[in-house]
Amino acid sequence: MSTKTTTPAADAFAQALAELADGYPTDPEGTALVTVTDPATGEQHQVPIEPGQLDWVTTLVQGQLDDFRNAHADGSGACGHCRGTGLAGGTGGAAGIEPPADDGSRP
């Protein structure tokens, strides 16, 4: 019996990827197999991820990285996900939508 404890983050991440893959199919052609390994136990969770889903996760991570950079004292302060539009999407998704006109109600 192992005395190592599991890392909740590894299991939660694998479950979230699996939920994305099950709930929002894109294109089964070119599906990648993502393996999340629990660093405490070595337990592996394998999740098939389709190309469109990989794009979504990549865009999410890139937006978060932009948030981190922009939050620094010398950063722009702009949200990396919506680029200041108030719409989700960052460089993909809603990024192609014209931002709403500034009616003065937003800072």
Task: Give a concise summary.
This protein is an alpha+beta fold and about 110 residues long. The chain has helices at about 10-25, 50-70; strands at about 30-35, 45-50. Strand 1 and strand 2 (about 45-50) form a beta hairpin.
Q: Give the proportion of residues in helices.
A: 25-40%
Low-confidence stretches: 92-97
Mean of residue pLDDT?
77
Topology, number of strands: 2
Q: Based on Cα principal axes, name the global outline.
A: flat
Distance between the ends: 57 Å
Give helix and strand order, one letter per element, not per position. HEEH
Enumerate how many helices there are, as a single number: 2
Radius of gyration using CA atoms only: 18 Å
**Strand coverage percent:** 5-15%
Strand order of the largest sheet: 1-2
Helix vs. strand class: alpha+beta
Written overview of the protein:
The chain has two helices and two strands. It is flat. A two-stranded antiparallel ribbon has the order 1-2. The longest helix is centred in the middle third of the chain and has 21 residues, at 51-71. It has 107 residues and is of the alpha+beta class. Strand 1 (32-37) and strand 2 (44-49) form a beta hairpin. The chain has helices at 8-23, 51-71; strands at residues 32-37, 44-49. Helix content is 35%, strand content 11%.
